[in-house]
Write a structure and sequence with these properties.
alpha/beta, Rossmann fold, Ubiquitin-like (UB roll), six-stranded mixed beta sheet, five-stranded mixed beta sheet, 10 helices, about 35% helix
């Protein structure tokens, strides 16, 4: 494989190599493909990997089929949209669907009884000028755990563990963490110094839902005081909207991305349509995101933003920051 892949892609490649069965290898390869920059230098590599992915999917589908028919799991394939894909997981009746409905324009079935959600449902959440994909999922429960659910979680950019403040929220969060860890999904903030082969480490946040009013303040303080798991947590209410604006901001931060705006020469920057890039990306990587050919032909750029004078000329290797404005210079 090329030696100039971004760190996230190199890590994904290692996870792909460590996978054993066709279904897991297909999931890891899909993750790897999504992280490979798109430009002429990677065209052949991407084509070869797509061919290999197709072969792995066929092998995985064959392994899932049972005599007399049965599903192929295709309904669990949710294509990424927006700046990132964030999956909601949690026990029955924790309020994942209600949160999806409150944060996006999706209209999942919301009810007071458990197991309402039987298949994943995506929706697009707005955070300022960025749109992020949230995916509601069936309950995460030991007595009935779909393999496809864990595949979806492993492919996601981040996860939100949703628990019910009015129930045994501490026990629910501990069970969610245990079920994920048993299937080699560990929150990134718990990643050991020497990562385990085959384990994925997504960014994660625990949401303590049904924090509906002042009457729950005491319950929240008890939860926070007794919490032993090393999880970042946020109390929220899908019913009243309490802390949902803070949740939008925290989800954006989970993705580890930044906004960069393009400025055509001689024109104003389009400040309504940012490009989203991994934090620490360079001018050359921004150029490749604008158009794959620009990553190779770029000469220099002018930048307005952090650590530069307005309109300062910088090199291809200049590291960009949140909300920088960039004007690219290419050969005529």
């Amino acid at each position: 494989m090329p030696t100039n892949l971004p760190p996230q892609a190199a890590e994904a490649e290692e996870r792909y190599k460590a996978a054993r069965d066709p279904e897991e290898k297909a999931a890891r390869l899909e993750e790897f493909l999504a992280l490979i920059p798109k430009h002429k230098g990677t065209d052949k590599l991407r084509a070869d990997l797509r061919k290999r992915l197709s072969q792995l999917r066929e092998a995985a589908e064959g392994g899932r089929k049972k005599p007399g028919g049965g599903g192929s799991g295709a309904a669990w394939k949710i294509d990424r949209e927006g700046a990132g894909q964030v999956v909601l997981v949690g026990p029955p009746n924790a309020g994942k669907s209600a949160l999806l409905a409150a944060l996006t324009e999706a209209k999942p079935e919301v009810a007071d009884y458990p197991w309402t959600t039987r298949a994943p449902m995506p929706g697009m959440m707005a955070f300022e000028d960025v749109r992020i994909q949230l995916v509601d999922t069936p309950p995460l429960a030991r007595e009935h755990l779909e393999p496809e659910l864990l595949d979806l979680v492993r492919r996601a950019d981040a996860l939100l563990a949703v628990v019910d403040l009015g129930a045994d929220a501490l026990g629910q969060l501990a069970e969610v963490a245990a079920l994920l860890a048993e299937r080699k999904v560990v929150p990134r903030h718990l990643r050991p110094a020497e990562p385990e082969r085959g384990t994925v480490y997504p960014s994660a946040l625990a949401l303590v839902n049904k924090f509906d009013g002042p009457g729950q303040d005491a319950d929240w303080e008890v939860f926070r005081g007794l919490l032993e798991l090393d999880w970042p947590v946020l109390p929220v209410s899908a019913a009243t909207g309490r802390n949902l604006d803070e949740l939008r901001r925290r989800v954006y931060e989970l993705l580890g991305i930044m906004r960069v705006y393009a400025k055509p020469p001689g024109a104003k920057a389009d400040l309504g349509s940012p490009f989203t890039l991994p934090i620490g990306s360079t001018v050359a990587e921004f150029a490749a995101a604008v158009h794959r050919d620009l990553g190779e032909t770029l000469l220099s750029a002018r930048v307005w933003g952090t650590g530069v004078h307005d309109g300062q000329t910088v090199s291809r290797d200049h590291v960009l920051h949140e909300r920088d404005v960039v004007e690219l210079k290419t050969p005529r």
